[in-house]
Specification:
alpha/beta; Undecaprenyl pyrophosphate synthetase; 6 strands; binds 3-methylbut-3-enyl trihydrogen diphosphate; binds magnesium ion
Amino acid sequence: MSLFSSATQRIPKVTAVPKHIAVIMDGNGRWARKRFLPRIAGHKRGVETVRELVKQCVKLNVEFLTLFAFSSENWRRPPEEVSFLMGLFMDALEREVVKLHQNNIKLVMIGDRSQFEAKLIEQIEASERLTAGNTGLVLTIAANYGGRWDILQAMNKMQVALPELAGKYQEENLQPYLSMSYAPEPDLFIRTGGEMRISNFLLWQLAYTELYFTDTLWPDFNEDAFSLAIQSYEKRERRFGRTSEQLQKPKP
Ligand code: IPE
Ligand code: IPE
Ligand code: MG
């Protein structure tokens, strides 16, 4: 039995504030180019936006915040940019983890970390260990993550664990092996930077997530911009397949 029910199996309870927000932090490069700065300057500024957003989520009592930091396709970028991003990830972990811990935030990293350098893997493991017992916001960083990779690695583990069910697998058999089995499915997905695509993020988990796209570039995504996303979410009618009439409260 998995901890959280799936939106396709059971209708989830909807809360005013999203319990889980997943974000594609896009537009760093364009933010920098607009200022005649190298792309990496945008990535550096983007870390500050992360810090601010984490604060906002704690204030709002969001339970899970999941950030897409590096996709399995981002290795296709110029090698200098890839190594800058890896370095930035390492620095940010080193600098921020104590503060996260003091704020009772639990840090989790999802994605295929086997391709990272040994010292980055150690830093990730140390950060996860330090914050493992925290009970506040769960901050998940998706690095070298791809939605298809996630589904495939889960399928392979499921098949090894439950060979006797071959040909008869159900959602609940797969769910425990997905990277985010510890979290409910995202209520709200935000993508900054103007593109309207999922870019191989949480493919399985976004089945019934409310999608929000904004032209605001990630380094400019401040408290006001985040409020607009939350306001948009508040206006959504989450039907999960039902009709609008079914959602109206029965008359007394
Ligand atoms: C998102 O910003 C950060 C990562 C993908 C690591 P981009 O670097 O994609 O910025 P744009 O899309 O080129 O503006
Ligand atoms: C998606 O952004 C990945 C991250 C934000 C980490 P990209 O900028 O790489 O996405 P595409 O390639 O434009 O779809
Ligand atoms: Mg981009």
